[in-house]
């Protein structure tokens, strides 16, 4: 069975602070894909990144970066110099051999001015 | 194409009534997914279509739920004899390949009173 755990239910920071959202996953499959989605108050899930299990290179996209570590089954997401517009719920998700995405419970990020 | 479109955005219904939701995926995507999201939780997989074939159904999809994708384009999700526990956001997503990112619509928020 697949499982994704996002231990941080809510995080509150002040603008320009760096913030890291944790994600730990469980799967017995050797081939799998990890995702991060952002859900702003409007409700639509916005795709941020996909990584496959064979590519442990970290990735940076502007103020966003992702740290994938198979040894600890973690796929953490860091926002550098946070902005108010980053306020949203962030979901980590896992896909293995099937078609479905297994989501974590999400982390509500609030960035205060 | 402007993305995945869902209709209606909001639906309030009385317990025991039937409701139907529609999803129009991104036009070149042959894979379509339905998820359900309750307050404070991550989305949970309901069912998956490849073209017009329904290939996977979650145990969450009781016999009161039925989904169709008659011509491999739009899809409908019907809930019969609604119950208060059906109140949730129903999300539709589409993708072009089985391991690629899924693009989500804005969802249909169902309230059963």
Compute the number of strand runs of chain A: 12
Tell me the β content of chain A. Answer: over 45%
**Helix coverage percent of chain A:** under 10%
Overall body shape of chain B = globular
Order of helices and strands of chain B: EEEEEEEEEEE
Return the structural class of chain B: mainly beta
Instruction: Sketch the major β-sheet of chain B.
Output: 7 strands, mixed
Tally of separate helices of chain A: 0
Termini Cα gap of chain A? 41 Å
> Mean of the pLDDT scores of chain A?
94
Which structural category do the helix and sheet elements of chain A fall into? mainly beta
Helical percent range of chain B?
under 10%
The fraction of residues in strands of chain B falls at: over 45%
What separation lies between the terminal Cα atoms of chain B? 35 Å
Largest interface: A-B, 24 and 28 residues
The biggest beta sheet of chain A reads: 6 strands, mixed
Please tally the helical runs of chain B, counting DSSP H or I stretches of 4 or more residues.
Answer: 0
Number of strands of chain B: 11
What ranges of chain A have pLDDT less than 50 throughout 5 or more consecutive residues? none
> In angstroms, what is the radius of gyration of chain A?
14 Å
Keywords:
heterodimer, A: 113 residues, mainly beta, six-stranded mixed sheet, four-stranded antiparallel sheet, 12 strands, 0% helix, B: 113 residues, seven-stranded mixed sheet, 11 strands
Account of the protein in words:
The complex is a heterodimer of chains A (about 110) and B (about 110). Chain A is about 0% helix and about 50% strand. Chain A has no helices and twelve strands. Chain A has strands spanning about 5, 10-15, 20, 25, 35-40, 45-50, 60, 65-70, 75-80, 90-95, 100-105, 105-110. In chain A, strands 2, 5, 6, 10, 11 and 12 form a six-stranded mixed sheet that branches. A four-stranded antiparallel sheet of chain A has the order 3-9-8-7, with no helix packed on it. A two-stranded antiparallel ribbon of chain A has the order 1-4. Chain B has about 110 residues and is mostly beta strands. In chain B, strands 2, 4, 5, 6, 9, 10 and 11 form a seven-stranded mixed sheet that branches. A four-stranded antiparallel sheet of chain B has the order 1-3-8-7, with no helix packed on it. Chains A and B meet through β5, β6, β10 and β11 of A and β4, β5, β9 and β10 of B.
């Amino acid at each position: 069975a697949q499982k994704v755990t996002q231990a941080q239910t809510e995080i509150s920071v002040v603008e320009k602070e760096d913030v890291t959202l944790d994600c730990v996953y469980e799967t017995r499959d050797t081939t799998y894909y990890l995702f991060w989605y952002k859900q702003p108050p409007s409700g639509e899930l916005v795709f941020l990144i996909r990584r496959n299990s064979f590519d442990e290179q970290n990735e940076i996209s502007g103020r966003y970066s992702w740290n994938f570590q198979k040894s600890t089954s973690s796929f953490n997401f860091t926002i550098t110099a946070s902005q108010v517009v980053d306020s949203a719920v962030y979901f980590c998700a896992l896909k293995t051999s099937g078609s479905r995405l297994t989501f974590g419970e999400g982390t509500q990020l609030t960035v205060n001015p | 194409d402007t993305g995945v479109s869902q209709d209606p955005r909001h639906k309030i219904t009385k317990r025991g009534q039937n409701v139907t939701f529609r999803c129009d995926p991104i036009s070149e995507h042959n894979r379509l997914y339905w998820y359900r999201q309750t307050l404070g939780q991550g989305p949970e997989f309901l069912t998956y279509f490849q073209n017009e074939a329904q290939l996977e159904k979650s145990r969450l999809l009781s016999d009161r739920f039925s989904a169709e994708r008659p011509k491999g384009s739009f899809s409908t999700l019907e809930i019969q004899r609604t119950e208060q526990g059906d109140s949730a956001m129903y999300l539709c997503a589409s993708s072009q390949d089985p391991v690629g990112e899924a693009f989500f619509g804005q969802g249909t928020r169902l309230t059963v009173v």
